[in-house]
Amino acid sequence: MTGRFAGRVAAITGAASGLGRAVAEALAAEGARLLLMDRDAAGLEALAARCPDALTVVIDVSSAADMARAAAAGLDRFGPASLLVTAAGMLGPTAPAVEAEEADWDRLFDVNVKGTWLAAKCFIPQIRAAGGGAVVTLASAAGLTGSLSLPAYSASKGAVVMLSRSLALAHAPEGIRVNCVCPGSIETPMLDATFAAAADPAARMAEFRARHPLGRFGQAREVADTVLFLLGEGAGFVTGVSLPVDGGRLA
Ligand SMILES: NC(=O)c1ccc[n+]([C@@H]2O[C@H](COP(=O)([O-])OP(=O)(O)OC[C@H]3O[C@@H](n4cnc5c(N)ncnc54)[C@H](O)[C@@H]3O)[C@@H](O)[C@H]2O)c1
User: Fold this and answer.
1) CATH topology classification for 9-186+221-241
2) What is the superkingdom listed in this entry's lineage (predicted)?
């Protein structure tokens, strides 16, 4: 297998759909061996059929036992991972922050924040054992600014941004780079769900599109290209960055 990531072992959460799937396909095309994790078993199987030599493990990223089981399965199959991408995430409650239900708030933070932390906790020791490598977390442009429509989501992604920066500081001496990608609105099933949840989906879609100076939504492949850049040697001196991929939304 040839390519920029030939022979490298990459662990990816949220691999069954959207951005995680686009990253998986791009890494497979560049020669990486993949540990694909998601709670969507059918989505994982469909993806694995297109990624030679991939191992799929069905997990809930908020479960420490599930994450540890997946990490052990990957280690058995491939040896230690040197690349990690955390793409599993959810939107959570759309209510104003003070009206959100406690259970919805807790579930959102369990998946978006705890799920990212657990992935780092289980895979950074493998990356260290591999002699170094790179982590890319998926936060959001909404993690770098407040949000009227998704306040809980914005808070959870702000936490992912800061966790990523702290991990970058902690693990730089071990040759482990940690960067965070902050997408604007990208055409995936999650974006469709955002519009479907709105009282007036067409108006919400127009409002979201208008936030992006480039005048369109992003494509999953554009985010995957950025993730691969940050994982690769071209970003060898880049760590602790929270990089918007947002069509100029935060410019
Ligand atoms: N699409 C966008 O516009 C956008 C913008 C900014 C940030 N993001 C972030 O990018 C990441 C990927 O989003 P996407 O658009 O590809 O969404 P998506 O809904 O298409 O994919 C998310 C994947 O995560 C998985 N997942 C969710 N909860 C899980 C859990 N508890 N355990 C295991 N797997 C779980 C889902 O099954 C799904 O396969 C998310 O973290 C999201 O918040 C997306």
Assistant:
1) Rossmann fold (3.40.50)
2) Bacteria
